[in-house]
Amino acid sequence: TMPKEPAVLRQNILDTTAAILACGIDPKKCFLFRQSLVPEHTELAWILGCLTNVPRLLRLPQWKMKRASQNNDGTVGLLTYPVLQAADILLYKSTHVPVGEDQVLHLELAQDIAQHFNKKYGEFFPVPKAILSEL
To answer: 3-class secondary structure for the chain?
Structure first.
């Protein structure tokens, strides 16, 4: 949600990919892809954003905290990022999502959006459930 230098962003993508592979993810057993190359993520985010009201997004604590750290100049990208997260989850019709405690409210938003979409257009998206790790 913050501007990045293109060269740094490209390197971050490579570093993240290397870290995922170093953790033992086997690309022969799972799909590994660069999300930004899948236009359906942003297309679905646009559709879901048209169904999500601004006051709901303004209540999210992450928006409040990050906006404060940006001298009250939060960006539209920061505000709508949780809708993109919901699109990332719902696009693949995920039923269970591993999340940390700090992301539970964003998953609840994805649940609300899925339920709203299903009520308006018919059953299409499963309502995803959180998988919280026990550390």
So the answer is: CCCCCHHHHHHHHHHHHHHHHHCCCCCCCCCCCCHHHCHHHHHHHHHHHCCCCHHHHHCCHHHHHHHHHCCCCCCHHHHHHHHHHHHHHHHCCCCEEEECHHHHHHHHHHHHHHHHHHHHHCCCCCCCEEEECCC
